[in-house]
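Predict structure. Chain length: 368.
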Amino acid sequence: MTEGRRFSRQEAEALLMVFLLIGFGLVMVFSTSSYKAELMFDNPAYWFLRQSLWAVLGSFSMLLVSRFDYRKLSEKPKLLFFIYAVTSFLLIITLFLGSVTKGSKRWLSFGPLSFQPSELSKLVLILALAAFLAEQERLLRKMKGIFIALFLTLPIIGPVAVENASTSIILLAIVGLMIFAACPWYKRFFLMIFLGGALGALIIGSRAYRLERFVIWLDPENHPKGLQTIQGLYAIGSGGIFGRGLGNSMQKMGFLPEPQNDMIFSIICEELGLFGVLLLMGLFVALLTSFLKISFACEDLFGFLIVIGVMSHLGVQIFINIAVVTNTIPNTGIPLPFISYGGSSLFFLLTEIGLVLSVARYGNDRNR
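Prediction complete.
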């Protein structure tokens, strides 16, 4: 652990946006879940308290990681390989021993504790790929290097794709954007888009229920499983400019299943209206802009790629979630970062941001 120093302006901006988003998310988790929590657990704050605990643990992890010199990881490739191998093993184990939720095995349980290894996989993939790309920068000038980089990501993306197509698509997007950032040749980037699209189509086509989502997307009103989409659109349409008011959603009263999860954006639209949506989008844009500044200021390729990986994760996941809720793309289970209920997602996302803050702290010689 390297001795710390005062926060730079870039770190302070990023931290402010992160804590504002955490606060926004906790308020919305309580608002969206209180009715259902009261019915199920006789405690309207049940999900809010659980999310708050994960927010505290994640914030502690973020601040702890931010004070660790990320460059030491690139100096220990064996450690990164071990972490990568363990993560891949956990993903494979989950396919056989994972807890079944909504027909999919995505959780590993250890007594009262459980977590999603697929959330850990995003963090580990970003670290491992950044280290490889930084070390093999010259190799990337040839197509052979890019194919090797893609091949090395399969032990993570492969097991995830079996049960979690949406997360595997996010992982593919992270990989493509990181490779492009390391070697910005547009012809190769378009080739990666084609290959990624083909692989994504193969993943989606491998399960009948994934193909069914396209049918629901095309005509949700006349499909028996289109209820969630329709109720979400009702919520969005009824919000207007300033919304019904915080806590006054009608759709969360049993009409929209689990409104605190993936569909929470629709309740934000209903309760806070266009004003609330613009506020949330402004926070996301400000956070990503602060990350972009950190990446440009970094004088180390490894650190630069870490920040690009985290930005890719956040940006792609935000886009997919909002596109699903607005029925722009077929439904898929992706939480809205910082906002949707989910302990594993929040904890590992905040840990990723800790790495970005570490890059801001140690990636520029003027900061040391």
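Summary: The longest helix spans residues 264-297.
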